[in-house]
């Protein structure tokens, strides 16, 4: 079944009237990515700019969607392709696959969003047993012609006919071994001619048919294969990982071939207008002489640095530098460029806004602001909260005494430690068992994607900054070291030999540094990130010891703070966490969970409260707890002086404060068997049995505790009020807010509020201090969201508890289901992402939106916030901005992420308003 479910397409089948399915490169532009895909739109844009782009045409994503929905190509597509092919043949002065001087084309995928290596490409279409002779004659190079033909059969066999690619690779390796050469460029024409015969036999045996000699059949089958590759397993996995919608489809680009494998004056390369790893300006990229484009990204042969092209072919180098400047100034961003040189003639094959590391993203954004190319609002759109979170991860300790065993290219930064594994299957298997792994390969290919996702980092002995491993790792924010040539990787024997002869077996721990390219044996200790030190106040932007990354982060955060409307608070339960949150930029505490204050050395007092048989016993326990609670709040109000502190009254079921039922039963049984005193344990066991619930998260907890245990909530309210009064009398500025949890009906809130108001009045009278303590509630039950208008009559603020709201809306327990079936749901595409990680906008989000609207209809000045962990999730922050909340609250470490995303959300809203 296709993943695209367009009912209109299903109804009309593959006959679509009045729709244009094919565009010449001269007809499109960069703004048509939805229709032409990123590659096609940018080829058209470069054509419009007058850059040297080989002529060609693009089959639209709409054609792909019709094909995927109906199982057949649109009726009109073949005629449109024929018309554009005729036009291309006229431009080129030759026909597709003609015997004497064949036109050859590439058929390449091109989705709206870059999916490097995840879908299919076939080069050299049009070659056959007859036309290969004509190509050799026209080129004056037999070796080139037969090399191109073997490449076509190899790519076509694997991509279109489903032949195992290893069979072709093994045959190529055998041919090199027979000739006693190390690389394929050393094979001669006769060797390649034999290899073509071998490849055709492989196709016949494995695919059950001959390699097609009709060039139009080759092209049509390749187009279908590209369409089909949209729903290939690796493409679907990549889309899930990158949260790319499944219903976009891919365009197909048919482009006249230019050849980089025509000898030493030809070649192919990938260039970046800035370093995608660091963001620094300069000449960055890879070049490979006498090669076709796939050789560079596949990492099969190690490339030379792009700068060396100046000595190899200065004319092409100078022209490329001018084009790179043109493209960066046109796109106003880092550009990733693919090019080919055919006997001294430069051709541009692709450009796109390049993937970059997190550090590069921040540096480049500020560089472009300084160059006057973009403004602050646009700079905010060039970075993400996820990238900022990456920059806050620890890094290796440079002073650690560790054994460095190799060094490669620093392709994607980070400090990764794990057990070496040599294939993707093992990486996934071990990762699911809780092991941290480093995927080690000679080079990666798209089939390694699941292993790359599972691994902490990727290490390859071949390839450069533009290889498959590097590009995909940067896109995922995964640590990667490429091209560590001194490491001998043997995937069949599952081992790696390092200089000096030491062998790293599968399962041995290694460490890789994606910032330096260094590879170490064993586990390297880590130290805090300089970005965390900056947020902690231990490093100051602009100081001599602050690096340019810290300076860039500082500037971007300043942009975000100026732009954002949402305030950002912290979830913090003690003064230490509160102070750290304040250093990270928190503007208050959105959730103080008082249950955490009842643990530790106070557990015995709580046990007495639960076991109390009389009102006097209960009041005695509460009396002893009161000063301890008050001390907690005094410290908290002092740490957050002048900022709001939302204190949630006791929420979890009481059984959480008692010993485990099984452990307690064993203790009682042992005491009885030994005839030892066990009266207290027996009372505890009876209490545990009395409080036992089948589903405690939907039982006696939250506001229900306050209603059935007299004095519990009033003790907490008194502690808050007395602490606030003490702080105010000490010339402080406490801004306490009292939050009632798990309210489902306004009557619950009204009863607790009446009691709280009386206690606050008593404290005001006793201390002579006027207190302004706001009282509100958590909206964490569907009923509360649906009756928010009524609840707002008794609440001065709402705080959405999205963790519990997600559980109650979906009807599953987070603690149980994430380990049991979430993986299957993600793999099947039921979830694009866990609803506990990013808010479910359609379900949970609809309730949040409706409750916010209803609450403010009743009380226009109602303050609205969120205190579930969604408050620190980048995508969720944008949703909370859109629905008009006043603040988000999250764990201290995620405060900078929330600040940044709040600024980005405001900036995007302004941009939408202006448009």
UniProtKB/TrEMBL annotation:
Catalytic activity: pyruvate + phosphate + ATP = phosphoenolpyruvate + AMP + diphosphate + H(+)
Obligatory cofactor(s): Mg(2+)
Keywords: ATP-binding, Kinase, Magnesium, Metal-binding, Nucleotide-binding, Pyruvate, Transferase
Pfam families recorded: PEP-utilizers (PF00391), PEP-utilizers_C (PF02896), PPDK_N (PF01326)
Top EC class, one word: transferase
Transmembrane feature ranges: none
PEP-utilising enzyme C-terminal domain segment(s): 551-903
Domain PEP-utilising enzyme mobile: 435-517
Its EC number(s): 2.7.9.1
All residue ranges annotated as the Pyruvate phosphate dikinase AMP/ATP-binding domain in the record: 77-302, 309-359
Family per similarity comment: Belongs to the PEP-utilizing enzyme family.
Name of the protein: Pyruvate, phosphate dikinase
Gene: ppdK
